[in-house]
Amino acid sequence: MAESKPSFALPPIKDNSIGWGPASHVLPEQFRDIPYAPYSKGDKLGRIADWSAPEGQKQDNRETSGRTGRQGFNRFNKDPYQSYGAGVSSAFIYTHNEDEASFSVVDNRSAAAKKASAIKAAGGQRNRPQKQQATRTGARTTNQRFGNQGGRFGRQQGQNRRRFGWKDYDKPQRMRDASVTVGPEWNVLDEIEFNRLAKLTYKVPASTEIASYGHINFYDKSYDRINTRNEKVLQHIDRSKYDYTTSDDPVMQQFMQENKGTVYATDSILALLMCAPRTVYPWDIVITRVDDKVILDKRDGGAFDYLTVNENTADPPMETDKENINSPGALSSEATFINSSFAAQVIDANEKIELENANAFISAEEQDATSSCGYRYKSFDLSNATSGDEEAEPVHLIVRTEVDAAVKTGANQEPTYLTVRALNEFDPTAQGSGGALSWRKALDSQRGAVVATEMKNNSAKLARWAVQAMLAGSEQLKIGYVSRANPKDSSRHVILGTQAYKPRDFMAQMNLSVANGWGIVKAVVDMCLLLAEGKYVLVKDPNKAILRVYSVPDDAFDEVDEDEEEEEEAAGAEEEEKEQPKAAQ
């Protein structure tokens, strides 16, 4: 039996040799009287039908655009993918001329209501053609009388438009770099959004002072009498202040050996965690898990020790070039220098309080060359036993806090502690000033407005200062107002005034919740206690309100330390080479 071979037959093709579309001789009888809408090969297929076009739109957009075979562009037709064939034929559009001709609108309103409606439609202006000439004459007279008032009003109107988001799309997008370079071997363990942190809460734990080191000078009250008419030059006083990280602190190392705590940190690190939802600029904290202890450190070579300027303003300073004194990096260095100089200048060097122990960071011969700073080591109980879990292990947080000065108050002249900080003004007319008032004009008469603007533009920085003062047990937060002597020169500054706040009241003005801050700390501590032994980094995303926890190698930052040591050795060798010719002479 012969095998049957498979066969394939092509379907018949009805070719239209005279144009596009189906040939007329192959159309079924029921479709012969329906018109056909031709199209161009360049047309793009989009919606099958467009029901959103207004009734008054032209039936044929070719009349508007002047193009043939394509749909025109107008304010109702911004989508390039319009309905297929919508702009080339009006054969399928149904018109109901007879219905429209027989339809009429009857307005039964009174004449007064019609007149009021007409005035409202015209923008509230009554059209009086007979008085147009008089109006023009009055406008010319007004301009001649008040000079350039019209131009001023026009500029004000433009400022209002820019203030409420006018041309926001034209502003360059801020893309900041991370505070630390994320290595390829780093693993992301968790991501925490700021909106989750803002919902945390924890009761304020009990604190106990376990040791104190250093000395505290008294505050010079003459600086409270400074104002804009009696300003004082900011001096550069060469006194060192030691701010070692947690693991490099010899007192902390001793506490770790004695197992006095579970978590170890400094007040600056703890304040940053408490105020994390307010931060915008990137930062990072190194977490080390050793045995049953957690150590929170700042990273060597990072931007942790530098203060930010106008971090929270809607339009922060922009990084344009390295030579610009109003760039974020230059302003940060300037603010850090101002704070250290102001804290060293406003103290009385002749009167001081010696704490329980001498400064542990320097020798006895170098005590007089250091700035006024008292280190108070406190223990905070973060255990869960208070919530009813008696079997929970105790968790004690050891924090090193700092006190800058002391002042005598009350009838008995008892000393109370101060935390001294300084706000700086760079140029109220420069980009990134955040709409701040000129301090020389408004600091004496409008102190409240100046403080409110600083709370808005520097919310994260001021919140951290208030938390540090609270942790240290300071009775007052003394803030100085330091401005440039010349807005174009960032090397010379003057003190325009000072102001004292109680830390709790200051935090209440900023709507800063202490319970929320401790809730964030408690959540971070609990997360760290669940980690395995090793090194981790808590990184704030440079462009998003997110915290990320990375697992890093144990030697992740050792190369940075070696590079810094090599740079220090090279700098020391250069100084020795310069000193040798002088000694020979």
From TrEMBL:
GO terms for molecular function: mRNA cap binding; translation initiation factor activity. The keyword NADP does not apply. It comes from the Eukaryota. Residues 557-578 have a biased composition (Acidic residues). Keywords: Cytoplasm, Initiation factor, Protein biosynthesis, RNA-binding. Residues 130-142 have a biased composition (Polar residues). Residues 303-317 are annotated as: RNA gate. Residues 1-24, 46-78, 118-160, 557-585 are annotated as: Disordered. GO terms for biological process: cap-dependent translational initiation; formation of cytoplasmic translation initiation complex. Pfam families: eIF-3_zeta. It is found in: Cytoplasm. Coiled coil: none annotated. mRNA cap-binding component of the eukaryotic translation initiation factor 3 (eIF-3) complex, which is involved in protein synthesis of a specialized repertoire of mRNAs and, together with other initiation factors, stimulates binding of mRNA and methionyl-tRNAi to the 40S ribosome. The eIF-3 complex specifically targets and initiates translation of a subset of mRNAs involved in cell proliferation. In the eIF-3 complex, eif3d specifically recognizes and binds the 7-methylguanosine cap of a subset of mRNAs. Belongs to the eIF-3 subunit D family. The RNA gate region regulates mRNA cap recognition to prevent promiscuous mRNA-binding before assembly of eif3d into the full eukaryotic translation initiation factor 3 (eIF-3) complex. Component of the eukaryotic translation initiation factor 3 (eIF-3) complex. This is Eukaryotic translation initiation factor 3 subunit D.
